[in-house]
Amino acid sequence: MALSSPLLEQAVDQLATLPGVGRRTAMRFALELLRREPAEVVRLAEAIRRLREEVRFCQECCNISDRAVCEICSDPNRDRTLVCVVEDIRDVIAIENTRQFKGLYHVLGGVISPMDGIGPDDLNTKQLFERIAQGEVKEVVLALGATLEGDTTSFYLNRRIKEQGVDVSMIARGISVGGELENVDELTLGRSIMDRKPYEQSVKRG
Question: Which of 79, 115, 141, 189 could form a disulfide with 84 if both were Cys (CB 3.0 to 4.6 A apart)?
């Protein structure tokens, strides 16, 4: 679309690069920003700048954090012998909302997907194995989506973690096949965490 203002067009172009935002939506966002008080727009811009420049990944669990070690890993009341492995930050949020899990997390940053050229070394698996090697972790809960990629990742992790002498469990299959954790209601997800089974038993039942 040809706009009367090159600056407006530039803003629309940038907003339209966001996932799920088409040019019409980007135009609505841009026009809304023009209607807002300048101070509001400055606060928004500053929040986005700080988000990009200051947010980092926790050096222990690879979760998003404002500090070197995230609040969950820093919490002395969490069970450090129990680690829940998830695909990304959205899964941590989903499980935390259930208030049923009291251990720590490890965020893989994705799942194994040969079709997309993503292998184990492209994920945060090295950090996970290093955490387990320290000897404090007694159980690893695999809480990955019920997809082909999720199952492939779980199979790989189970084999590698078992080699380190640590118990591996898997969340109960209250989640439909092909489902993602972030889309599961809190009650179902909470029960899946509490009713987790040893990995081998979960695979046989599945």
Answer: 141
Q: CATH number of the domain that 43 lies in? A: 1.10.8.420
- Whether residue 184 is contained in a domain is answered as yes
152: how many CB neighbours lie within 10 A of its CB? 16
| Per-residue pLDDT reduced to its tens digit, 92-124 | 998 999 888 999 999 999 999 999 999 999 999
- Identity at 123, one-letter amino acid code: L
Q: Quote the number of domains for the chain.
A: 2
Cα Rg, the chain, nearest whole Å: 21
Task: Provide the CATH number for the domain around residue 191.
Answer: 3.40.1360.10
Beta strands in 98-183 (DSSP E): 103-107, 139-142, 167-170
Name the region of 117 (left: φ>0; alpha: ψ -120 to 50; beta: rest).
left
Indicate whether 179 and 111 sit together in one domain: yes
pTM: predicted TM-score of the whole model, two decimal places = 0.75
Same-domain check for residues 181 and 150 = yes
Q: Exposed/middle/buried for 124, CB within 10 Å: 0-12, 13-18, 19+?
A: middle
Strand partners, 37: none
- The CA dihedral of 50, 54, 57, 59, to the nearest 10 degrees, is -160
| Cα torsion through 35, 40, 41, 42, rounded to 10 | 150
